[in-house]
Amino acid sequence: MVFVFPFLWMISTSLQTFQETLAFPPTWIPAWPQWINFVAAMRAGPFLTYAGNSLIVTFSVIILQIIVMIPAAYAFAKYRFVGKEILFSLVLLAFMIPGQVTFIPVYLMLADWGVINSLLPQIIPFMANAFGIFLLRQYFMQIPQEIIESGRLDNASELKIIMKIMVPMSMPALATIALFSFVSHWNDYFWPLVMTDSANVRPLTMGIAMLRETEGISNWHIIMAGNVVLVVPILIVYLFTSKQIVKAFVYSGIK
């Protein structure tokens, strides 16, 4: 109930009238669900633009992370090369340093490139996922070397081994990392706030936050309707990836 209560309260408030949001004791079940609140929330600003920006940024980050993460994790798990331990230590160090510590030098670098106030600064700094490289590397290490050697004996290239052996056998870990990344960047507010100042390139999170300015701080039924719209895509993605996440934590052997 500690986790579920805020969501129930959000959904209940999003379907109430203005008078019901001010009632005491609080109203849990609206007398008549006000679906018009969602229409009002979407008309309060260019929310289709906000939603499109969020989709572009989130899926671009996930795709780029996968492109970087898979070969990096494979190299750390199955190859021996000079400086491997040092490089992996740097990956772990990047995983431990919060983004708020590095955002000033990253901002200055992107400003020098002239890409501030666009979608690029919301994508480029997150192309590499240190946590994903670490988790996927641990998963790759569970796959016996004999399976990889058998692929090489069949004249399979390294790329084919990765795509036909490593990736399918590590799909639960990839789905888990993708879900975490989706939630993180779909809900991101701090980074777009710093990197953008135009509604044309801002994500949905900032659009929902601006509802308090356009609708007034007391119109909680409209604000909560916007928050429900923000949460729904996360729930949909979770429904499609939940089985893979469970498999990632109950993984018991190689088929």
TrEMBL record:
It is a multi-pass membrane protein. Pfam families: BPD_transp_1. It is found in: Cell membrane. Its main location: membrane. It comes from the Bacteria. The keyword Hydrolase does not apply. Residues 51-241 form the ABC transmembrane type-1 domain. Keywords: Cell membrane, Membrane, Transmembrane, Transmembrane helix, Transport. PROSITE patterns: ABC_TM1. Belongs to the binding-protein-dependent transport system permease family. This is Carbohydrate ABC transporter permease. It comes from Paenibacillus radicis (ex Xue et al. 2023).
